[in-house]
Amino acid sequence: MRAPLRPRLALLALMAAAFAGACFDRAGAAAAYHRPGQRPAVFIRDSDDEGSASPQQVHTSLVGQDKMRISWITQGSAPPTVEYGKSPGVYPSSSTGSTTSYKYALYNSGEIHEAVIGPLGPNTVYYYRCSSDSAREFSFKTPPAQLPIKFAIVGDLGQTGWTNSTLQHIVQSNYDVLLLPGDLSYADFYQPWWDSFGRLVEPLASQRPWMVTQGNHEIEKMPVIHPDSFTSYNARWRMPFEESGSDSNLYYSFDVAGIHIIMLGSYTDFDPSSAQYKWLQADLGKVDRTRTPWIVVLIHAPWYNSNTAHQGEKESIKMKASMEGLLYQARVDVVFAGHVHAYERFNRVYNGKANDCGPVHITIGDGGNREGLAKRYMNPMPSISVFREASFGHGQLEVVNATHALWTWHRNDNDEAVDADSTWLTSLSSNPACKS
């Protein structure tokens, strides 16, 4: 990676009082353990030695099979041009994109640039610079065109010392693509936190594609003052929704190395008459399991959850009632969610019961947010829940071939990425009993 993850300047106010410990359940057995207390928030300021045209908050995302979107911000005017090539300092190709900005109350964003580059070769390292700035060269590696592929998956990331530690562990995982099921910066209306978050994740997001969907902390709607939702998120984290036939940046899909990945919006309309429902129905209808034998879905608010946190919310209950049948009929393999600040893995499930042809539901909302962990679970442990633990951490999904994938959850314990839960998954497309 280009640079180690660490705060470059100031730490802001300490978080609330430290907590004593957390509880976990493994296959129905409960135990207690103690971990270090909450860590301070991390605010990363703009570097004093960078000019107004210097690119910052650089991140990459996939666009189609062989293209990448490069996004970055400058404080002053600069061309939205990316120059790139396969050798350091040598840029035979270039692409010029577009520049936007936004206002939020008294805040004015910097110049937000993006450019789509390609066609690119698979599993290849490219070097690039943004806005013709020779002082900052970046590099990224494209994902493989075929299996195997490794995903890093983490939700509710935030900006704390635990976030920093989690990101360090993700760096070491040698992942190909990062998937984030909502709640990125926890800016919560204070827009400079968005800038800080962009600087915090740049060392990772500039080197591997980050594919995200929104959570409740991205809504940022205030009556009278700012009546529009998702302004900052949509401006800063543009995803390839048009390419999948979606009319909204809040839900989209993409293919990578034999996996069809669907990013859904928990905080936009999802009833059967909604645009999102109709789009999802059409998108699933186009899936060719001979080309993409795996289907993975990301949402923010979990449909299955035995933590006491976030029980009874319409984004979970009503969205599940509306869309679960579509996912079951399409034989979706795994559904990842955030929102609950803990980890939980369920059996294959449908309509509240174990079902060998239903998806595995996994809550991975434990990236490092400032609100702390959700430490209370419902008892007794539901029979469909396999493993649950209130710890910060991240997950890795290594899809080995068309039939098998290894899921591993890494607890972030004392800054060591402890392999705390793992299981082999078999694709439903390879299960004769689940042929639809």
Automatic annotation (TrEMBL):
<comment type="similarity">
    <text>Belongs to the metallophosphoesterase superfamily. Purple acid phosphatase family.</text>
</comment>
<dbReference type="Pfam" id="PF14008">
    <property type="entry name" value="Metallophos_C"/>
</dbReference>
<keyword id="KW-0325">Glycoprotein</keyword>
<dbReference type="GO" id="GO:0003993">
    <property type="term" value="F:acid phosphatase activity"/>
</dbReference>
<feature type="signal peptide">
    <location>
        <begin position="1"/>
        <end position="22"/>
    </location>
</feature>
<dbReference type="InterPro" id="IPR029052">
    <property type="entry name" value="Metallo-depent_PP-like"/>
</dbReference>
<feature type="domain" description="Calcineurin-like phosphoesterase">
    <location>
        <begin position="149"/>
        <end position="343"/>
    </location>
</feature>
<dbReference type="Pfam" id="PF16656">
    <property type="entry name" value="Pur_ac_phosph_N"/>
</dbReference>
<keyword id="KW-0408">Iron</keyword>
<keyword id="KW-0732">Signal</keyword>
<keyword id="KW-0378">Hydrolase</keyword>
<feature type="domain" description="Purple acid phosphatase N-terminal">
    <location>
        <begin position="55"/>
        <end position="142"/>
    </location>
</feature>
<dbReference type="Pfam" id="PF00149">
    <property type="entry name" value="Metallophos"/>
</dbReference>
<protein>
    <recommendedName>
        <fullName>Purple acid phosphatase</fullName>
        <ecNumber>3.1.3.2</ecNumber>
    </recommendedName>
</protein>
<feature type="domain" description="Purple acid phosphatase C-terminal">
    <location>
        <begin position="358"/>
        <end position="419"/>
    </location>
</feature>
<dbReference type="InterPro" id="IPR008963">
    <property type="entry name" value="Purple_acid_Pase-like_N"/>
</dbReference>
<dbReference type="InterPro" id="IPR025733">
    <property type="entry name" value="PAPs_C"/>
</dbReference>
<dbReference type="InterPro" id="IPR015914">
    <property type="entry name" value="PAPs_N"/>
</dbReference>
<keyword id="KW-0862">Zinc</keyword>
<dbReference type="InterPro" id="IPR039331">
    <property type="entry name" value="PAPs-like"/>
</dbReference>
<dbReference type="InterPro" id="IPR041792">
    <property type="entry name" value="MPP_PAP"/>
</dbReference>
<dbReference type="InterPro" id="IPR004843">
    <property type="entry name" value="Calcineurin-like_PHP"/>
</dbReference>
